[in-house]
Every structure is written in structure tokens, then in C-alpha cells.
User: Fold these one by one.
Assistant:
Number 1:
Amino acid sequence: MALNPMALDLSGKKYANVAYEEKERLFDEVKADDRWHHVLYGCYECGICVAACPSARFYDFSPRVIAQAAAREDVDLMYTLMNDSVWDCSQCFSCDRCPRQNSPGQIITIMREVAVKNGLKTAKEALEGYGRIIYKIMSTGSQVSPDMLQPNAFPDWGGHVKEISDNLDVWRKALPPETLHTTETGWKITDKTIVELYLIWHMTGVMKLIEGVDEGLFMILVDVMEERLEEAGYDDISFD
Amino acid sequence: MASENILVIGGGPTGMEAARGIASIGYKVTIVEKRDRLGGTPDASQYAALTPDMRSAEEAIGEMVDAITNSPNVTLMFNTEVIGSSGSVGNFKVKANQGGKEVTIDAGSVIICTGFTHFDPGRETQKYGYYEHDDVITLVDAEKMFKSGNFVRPSNGEKPKSVCFIQCVGSRDRQIGNEYCSKVCCGISSKQAIEVRQHVPDCKVFIFYIDMRMYGYWENEIYWPAQEKYKVNYVKGIATEIVKKGDRLLVKGEDTTMRRPLEIPMDIVILAVGMEPSEGTKKVADIFGVKKNKFGFIETIGGALNTVSTDVPGVFAAGAATGPADLEDCVSSAGAAAMKAIASLRTVAIPA
């Protein structure tokens, strides 16, 4: 193991500088989640989840170790995994084939949420690269949009990409559903929808989550959202 | 002159069930028991609760005792040991020592129900130190503590903070000579692990194992609850030694699936000792000239289809005298042996 610098440290001693009580507090938060008792039973340590896991082919990542540490209530190791392992999961839930009906993927979902809510440094680092995507989704309500189809971004798609992107507006208008006559968003998102989305993200605490991980992104989003909400008559909404 | 009496040797669960079966069909049966009472090992070793249903052993065994105690077809001979035998199927003359007095019992057929003995951990080849550390005990010792309702560290009478079980002590071990699995220890350890958590809820409980072997309903009735409800920590890896550290025990092993060495301080270590043939089983097998296997258990000759016939016509064996067995096995094979013992006797009794 020591030969591989990327290897996951299973000793449970990696974060010896973090107080046991703090690790325990985070694990208790994970266990307190309503979903917990439906995603973890006991672990046979059989590895069926690892065998099905695409991430395990590329990283020293093991859904088995996640379920195992959780079932054993190994507080130190759970902390290591919450920092060093949960972001290697692609959340495809191929692991949902466990004979005990554990769902390592969903255990990870909960662990990620706790990591984000508590602003763990590793969570911030892991999510850094997703700022642009989150900005697009949360400001427009859709992620992939036609104007992302740039010839230099997709050279392998062939010469006609340039032709299409030059006349994107026309091509889109040729599509029968009127809702697809857009270029900056995947489909036409009505004012009512976007305002509702902003309100949902505000009221469910999503904005607070983002503030904990990426303050810069949070501030840009707040600018966009506050203006639009004010226009819609929600001038008493505060993101502070 | 053929005898219509069937001799059952051993008054444990197997012997009692065989006798009950024979008597209920209307045949005469004599139980020879070397102790002064019925009940066998569950009674002698003071088992607390049965696996897997946690039923009181005393109550269950008591029920078996009651079923034969006043039966007109059952003769009970206590403080009695078989010392010799002559004759053959239909007409055995079995010599026994009854409290110092030699007696002869006529029997048409014989069922050997002499059971097992718990493996003596003094013979293990690792370094667990059963006779060295007060807090290293066996499943049998733990059972006594559960029965008394007082599960504490033998060394100081305090409640334990951490307890572990070490599986396969004396079983599945070529060095010791017991290559077989003792069948019941995984289930009993898991049952006891639950009991530890019930007695001392804040105590951490570990089970160090090679494979967990809980077939059939033992899986969902003991293993899963132990792990899921009682948070018993199952670690695949067998401890290599136990050393004293302060007033606690340091258990050294490997957490194999986690790829890491393991050293955990424990307050009580429970050795999951397996089964070996009892002295009585080996002795009685020799008296009747019945073949034993290389472990000393009585060898039955019918494979999976006949688990009670021996190589001597008219002599049958059942329960843990033939190999590791749980209570279900014992009671089932006792019934099969009772039927075959009666059948062999009838075959002989019908005049040619």
C-alpha cells in the first residue's frame, strides 16, 4: 500500500490530529439522517458492490469499505472516508445489488451532504471544479445548453459542428416544439419556473450549503437571484 | 431368546429423544446414564439459552426429561457405565457398572448417544492463554455467567467495556488434528454476542472469524440481528495471540478485509471452543466394536441417506457421538435411530 501514493489509508490514523469527538459528531450526523436505516444493514464484506463499481476500476475506491466501516461503526475510518473517498464515487448506484440490501452509494450521498454542510476542506476542494456547472444550473434552471456546442470544444464531432453553431438560432427554430427555440438554455424556462426554483433553493437550505463550500459562487448567485426575485415581487427575500 | 428391549446409552437430548420415540411406539427402552440425572451436556454445563431461539435451556431440557421420566416403557439407570458387551443384533448382553455393582442388560438393539466434549483450550496452538489469563474464557464459561445473570470480568468482577469472541478454537485446525468444523460455534458466539449487548449495552463486541457458518434460518435469526440490531463487529481474521497489557488483554490479529494489522485491548476474550468426541463415545464405540473415524467420532455407514447405522448390525449411533451436531441434528437423528433400532429388532424377532 505504501508504494502507491494514491492509496486510500485504511488505518484510521490518517486524521489523528482531528479530535475523536469531532469525528463522532459527524458520524452521528450521518446516522441521524432519515435515510440511514434504509441504506445500511450489515456488511458481509463480500465485495459484490466493488465488482460492479466503475469508480473502483480507476481509483483506490471501495464501496465495500464504506459499508464495512459504517456497519462496524468505525468512527476514525468513517472520517477518513468522508474526506478521502466519498468524492471518488460517481453516484451511479451500480452497487445497489447488495444481498443485505445496503446501498453504499446512498451511504455516500448522506456522507457527502454532511461533509458539505460542515464545510470540510476536502469537500470544498472536491467541488471546486463544479462551480461553473452549479452556476449554470442554478441561475438558468438547466445545465447543458445548445450554445455550449462550440467547434473548438468538440473537434472530434466533425466539420459540420461549425456550420451548426454559426446558425444555431436558425437550427433551433427548425425544431417543432416551441420550447426548444432557445440557445442559452436547454429549453425555454418560464419566468414562473425560474422564480419557483430560486425560492425552493432558498427555502430548502441549498443556498446555505453553497455558501458553506464556495462563497464566491454563492455571492454571484445571490446577485442574479435577488434581482429576478425582486422583479417578481419578492423583495423581502434575504439570502444572508 | 431375542430381547424386545432397546438400550440407549446416554441420557442427554439425543438419548432422551430416542427413548421417548421408542417408548411412544410401545417398545421397552433402558437408558444408561453415568451421571445421577438426565439432561446431558446442556444440563451438566449449565447452558443458559438455546440457539437460535434463545429459549431457556433448562425449560427445554426439562420438557424432554418430563416426557420420559414416568413412562412405563422407560427404565432409567443412573450412575451406570457400560463396561462390556457380547451377543449380536436381537440378543445383546450388555454389562454395566451401576454404582460399583456389575449388572447385565438384555437388549435387542443399541443406540449410542454418548455425545461430545468441549474442546480443551489448553491444547490450542495459538497463544490465547486460557489457563494463564482469568479474563480468557470459553463459550461454556460465558454460558454459565449468562445463566447466573452476572456477566462480568472474572479477574475483578467489573462490567466489561469490550469483549471479543475468537472462532474455530480447536476446530478446522490441522495442527490440532481437528479438521472439521464444529458447526454450532458461530451461531452460539453470535447468540452470546447479542446477550453481552443485552447485559452490558455500552460494551463493544467483536467476533474474529475465518468464515461465519450459520446455515439455514440461523442466518436471519441470529447473524443478521447480531450485526444489524446489536451492532456486533464481525472481523474476518483470527487472533494469533493474547498478551496482558495493564489489567486488560491485548488481542493481536489481522483485519484481513481492511488490509491492516489489528491490536485491540479487551476486557474479556471468549474462545469459541468446538466439539470433540467424549470419552464415553470413544469407550463405548470400542466396547461394541464400532468403527470410529480418524477424529474419534463414531462412523455411520450410510452417507447422507442413513446417518445412524454403524458397521455393527443392531448398533446405532445418533447425535454428537457421530460428529459435531446442534440440538436439531441430535433430535432428528435420535428419531431416525429409534425407528431403525425398532426395525432391526422386529426383523430378528419374526421367526424364520
Number 2:
Amino acid sequence: MVDLTRKRDVLVIGGGNAALCAAISARRSGADVLILEGAPKFYRGGNTRHTRNMRCAHDAATDILTGPYTEQEFFEDLLRVTDGHTDEELARHMIRESKDILDWIVKQGVRWQPSLGGTLSLGRTNSFFLGGGRAMLNALYLTAEQLGVEILYDAEVIDLEIDQGMFVSARLKQRDAVISVRASTLVAASGGFEANIEWLKQYWGAAADNFLIRGTPYNRGSILKMLLEKGVQQVGDPTQCHAVAIDARAPKFDGGIITRHDSVVFGIVVNNRALRFYDEGEDIWPKRYAIWGRLVAAQPDQIAYIIFDASSRNSFMPTLFPPLESGSIAGLASQLDLDPVMLEKTVGDFNAAVKPGTFDPTILDDCRTERLTPPKSHWARRIETPPYYAYPVRPGITFTYLGTRVNKQARMMMSNGKPAANMFAAGEIMAGNVLGKGYAAGIGMTIGSVFGRIAGREAAQNARN
Amino acid sequence: MHGTRTLEEADRLMTVCNSCRYCEGLCAVFPAMEMRRAFSDGDLNYLANLCHACGACYTDCQFSPPHEYDVNVPKAFAVARAESWAAYVWPRAFAGVFARNGVAISVITALSVAAFVFGFAALHDHQVLFGIHTGPGAFYALMPHNAMVVLFSAAFLYAVLALAMGVRAFWRDIGEPVGMVGDAGSLWQAMKDAAALRYLDGGGSGCVNEDERPSDRRKIYHHLTFYGFLLCFAATSLATLYHYLLAREAPYPWWDLPVLLGTLGGIGLIIGPAGLLAEKSKRDPALVDQQRTGMDVAFTLMLFLTSVTGMALLVWRDSAAMGPLLALHLGMVFSLFITMPYGKFVHGIYRYAALVRYARERRQLAHGNQE
């Protein structure tokens, strides 16, 4: 049994990558550490359960990485995906620290493997977890337990006692009772609020009802909300999130990686008016997949349809849900409840605008449309070989960017501009510091591991003083 | 549509897994899956027999129960494997033996042992059965050597024939041409993979059994069992050569090669199966094909008892207990041989065949990529 009356050096709230890295690093620095994970044991770890890789800078190829990925290149990638919406000092600090994480995380039991089948484009930049995110989590939990970190599941924190930037205790709901858990320092690593539809509606309105949540229903952002209400400085745009287009037939929560679609570049995407709304061939897919969630969210009823033909049927990874299929475009339209005449016109206009070229999905090829709005800049091929196929897609929210401002010690900043006395944050709850908008594969895990490790170390030291 | 509900479920799981692929570094099953976009009955039976039941993919899976996707590949494949063995069995009339395997094996073993006991008793008077026999040829006072050779060779050859017919059915089911047997490179690769139990380690960390903590215990116990079995087999074969080529009759002194090999093997074949049974009893029920625990236990227990009776014979061969112990041991060995094609033993044969196919697919893929 976990003794909840004893005051801990470090209290970690959350149970994912950032929380575990913080707990392990605090424990290795000599602190007495308790983790409060709000989810039951199976669902422990929030979004980490669904991750598969981490983006770390490295100066040379390794056993599992095909080439160097310098700090500068990493930073330039970050600038590009965020349109400059990042805290440069913090971002550069994170990228520098990420180099060391490649080895450090292995010492915590995590095992790497080369990039998975179908993800070769990430082979140089991203290290993949052998067995995926849950395997990574299992390894971290095992290490934490062996080090003597105490872990409580189903531990929902309902209030935080904070006195002028000084954490005192967390109010923990345990069956019918409420218990105050005291600690010298707090590490908040409890994620964002993507599973809190009511909160999302504050910014997105009724559209949020049509969002699918890719992770567990436990990512409700309650700790984030408490911290912001109790004087911690806010960072990030509340409407920004990592959202991709996922299969509309996916479950409301926790559908995970397997509901995604990689077929956008092979066809066209129409809304429920049977109209195209964005350049499907703008850039290589991994660089663009993260914009399609927001694009679909902006369409009527937050739904869209990827339309392609037999020539592309086997060009992308197999999908969980099979595509809808018909011998004619009109037949496909009726299955999708779209206006058949309008869909035939959209496909016809697209086909007429396609210019001849040499199709090559691995490069920015010369297959494009002319005099079409919006254009399809690459990989444009006529949709003319039956059977025709469609995947219905909706916005799938992975994580939110609204968070707590931190400094390089992962210490929370208060709204009066002063650093918090004993409160630290790591992971998604502070991702908005470096990720103002956009997304680059694996960067969420980088934020979690780097700032988790820093937060744990700093919290342990803070507790000693 | 598939032939059975088991294969329908296996297909559902492979469709989930093929759109995820997080587990591709854990074993051979997932890379083999990735070579396909759709799965025939034969494909699923191939994948099921390729699975070593290390359990890592269950523990690592974000979609395992209680998740609504209910992904439990080790269990689904355990069921599919057992059903495939019943489907491939020769002669077909014995397919039912797989269903109530524990009972069937127990009955056959009891009958075999009884046959030897009564056979000895009927052929000899009490003085011979409970007499003290020592020196070369002592065993053959109870049963002539030639009779032993004929009986056990027949049992062994029958087992080989039945197993070969089963593999033939498997090979056809998974769509491999018979001529493939000539691919020496794949046979050798599969031999190495099987000998090292390369895929019984969750991609390097070990098997998961009772909880999410991986360990190498099952692999070690399996090695002890397998190599113990081989050593015992080598001891018997060598003794046969001694008999015919060197005209030296058993029992042999403790320091002689057949006894040394047999003793070493026997120890492995006691510790190994005992360990495997202990691991099995601790195994997370979620991973176990509950309907067929009898089959696993029956075969492992058979190996254990064969070894225990053999070791007992070695220890008490100079006493009056030798006769009954010999009957007991020979009964166990006979039963082990004739039930081999109808129980858990076949897992090794089909898995080896699946590994051969996997090795060949890998070679073809590597070849294709070079072109």
C-alpha cells in the first residue's frame, strides 16, 4: 500500500513519458517520489501509449538512425512547422538536451529499433521504440518501480493547494474520501485537454462535437486548468492542437494510430458539398499529414472524403477500415450521401486539369494540375480506373498546445513573471512553449523526455534545499 | 470469409496489426504479416504456427483488452495453431485426439505401461520380473533386444510417417510448392532460428508470462527440454550402434558415452519440463488457450515422466526394482512415440516448417529489393 500521509520530496502528477522520465530522474537524484496517475493501470501513460518514436538530434548515424541530424537542422525543421511560433532559447535548449536522451532513455530500459515499415522517411531523424509506445512505457514503469518510485493508479487529483506560487498539497479522490498528499515539490506532467469536449467547445464551438479523440478519455486537462486558475502563466494558443484526418468510423476515444490515413496524396479530398478545398499534393505526406485535421475541422459538419481509384489501391499502408467501393463515381457519391452530379463534376474538372508527368510518390514529382482551384501541385493523376474508392475522414485530435509557461529548468512561470517556488512542468502540459503551432513527427516525445528529465532533476534539487 | 470463426478472428487481428505495425521488431510474425495486404486461411495458419507465444505483443499492445479492439494475438494464434494441427493430422480419423488431448494421452500412456508390465509378467515368471540382473544384456532378460528394436523402430517410424503427412498437409495449406524442400539456405536458416529459439524472446527482452516483466525463463527451460530430448535420443541411437557395430550390450557403465549423454539429457529433461510446467501454471490466463491446457500439460508431463523413469532405471538397475522400472520406462517411451503426432510435440515440427517458409520469404524479399 502507498502511504499517502508521508510528505514526499517530489510529487509527479501524470503517468506518461514526461511523468516517468521526471520520476526516474528525480529518484536517481535521491528524491522520495510518488506518481499519481489518474487512469487505471491498463490506460496508464496517456498519449504515450499511442506513440512510436522520438525525434532527437545526433551528429552521426547510429545502429538505428541512417544519418546525422544536427541541432541546427532540427531547429530549422521546428521553425518551419511552427511558422516561427516557438521560444527559441527554450527550443534550442531542448534540442541540445535531446542528443543525450538517445542514450539516457536506453539506460532507463527503453529499446530502440530502426524505423518501421512504411515510415522510411523518418529513418534518419526519428528513433523508434521497439514494440511501440506501450512497450516504452512498460520499460519506464519497470525501471521506476525497481528504483523505488511509488505509483498510484486511478488517482484523480481534484484540487491543488497552491499558496502564492508555492505548491503545498494535492487533493486526491480515493473512493469516497478526499486525501491531501503533501510534497516539497510538484512536477505536473498530466497532459493536455484534448479529451475534454466541453473545454474544446469553448474555442471551437459545436464543431468540437464532431472531433474524434485519438488518445484515452483521461486526458481532460484538469491539472492544467487548476494551475492556470491559480496564477501560473499561460502559454500557447488554445485553439492550436495536433490534429490529423482520421477515419470517420473510428471510435470517439482511443482509436490510436491505426485510424489514420496516408492516402490523401494519391487522390482528391472533397467536403460534403462534393467540393475540393485544399491542395492534396502540396508536399511530401509526412510533412503535411498534420495539417489535414484542421482543414477537415473547417469544413461543413467536420467531415471530408478521400477519393481515389483502383490504380492507387495498394499504394499506401493497409487500413483498419476498408474503403467504400463503387464501379462509378455517382455510385460512390450515393454511398457517401454526396450529390452525385456535383461529385462527378468535381472529379471531371480535376481530371481535365491534370497535366501529363512522371508519377513518383517518393519525390515532389511533375504530375500537377493546371488552372484548377485549389490546385494539386504533385502526384496528380486522373481518377478514371474503376472501381472507385473513398475513405470518410474527421478531425482526430492528438494533443493540445495550451499550457503552462516554463523556463529552461522546466520551472513554471507565474503570471506575475516570477518563477514558481517549487512547481515544474513537463510534456504536453508545457508543449506550447516550443510548439506554438504545427507538428513534426516524434517531437511530442522529445518534449516529454527532455523536460521530464530536467523537471525531475530540478525538483529533486529544489526539495533538498 | 474464412473456414472457421477462429480464422475470422485471426484475420481481424492481422488487419488491425497490419495498420499499426508497432510490433514488427518483436518476432517473425509481424514482418511476415507485412508482406501481405490480405490473409487467406493458409496465410493465417502459417502466421499462427510461426508465432512462438512469447507474449510480448500482448503486453506491448495499446489495443489489448480491455481496449475495445480486443487485440490478443498470442491467444488467437494459440487456438488457430491447435485447430490447424487437428486439420492436418494423419490419419484424419485421429483429429479428435487434439480436442481432449490430456485424457487421450493419459489413457494411451497407461495402456502402454500396463502392456509392458503384463507383457513381462506373462512372458516370465516372478523370479525373472523381480530378479536381480546385472552385467551386459541384463535388460534383455526381460525383453529380447531384437524385440525391443522392432517394436520401438516401428513406433518411431510410424510417428515419423504421421508427422511427415501432417507437414505435407500444412505445406499445401500455406500454398508452398513441394519442391521447396530443396532450398538448403532456408532450411539452414530455419534450423539456426529454431535451435536458438530466436523468436522466443520478445525482440530481446525475454518472454512475458505472468505479468509485464519479461524474463528468459521459458526460453531456458525450453532449451533444457529440447536439448535434453536430443541428448537422450543420441544416447539411445549410440547404444544401438554399440550393440550392432561393437557388439557391446547394455547396460553400460556410468562413465560410458550412452549413459553420460543419457544422464545429462535426462537431467535436462527433468528440469526443463518441470520449469515449463511451473511457468505454465503462472501464465496470465489471458494468454492461454484455456481449452487446450490439457494438451500442453500432457506432452510436457510425458517428457518429464519418461526422463524420471529413465533416471530411476539408471539408479536402481542393479536391484529387484529393475524389472518393473524397465516396464514403466519402456511403456512411457512407447507411448511418447506413438502419441507424438497427436499432441503438443507437433508444435516444433510445424514451427520449423513455418520458419523455413519465413526464411525463404525473407530471402526473396531481399532479392527483390536488390533488383
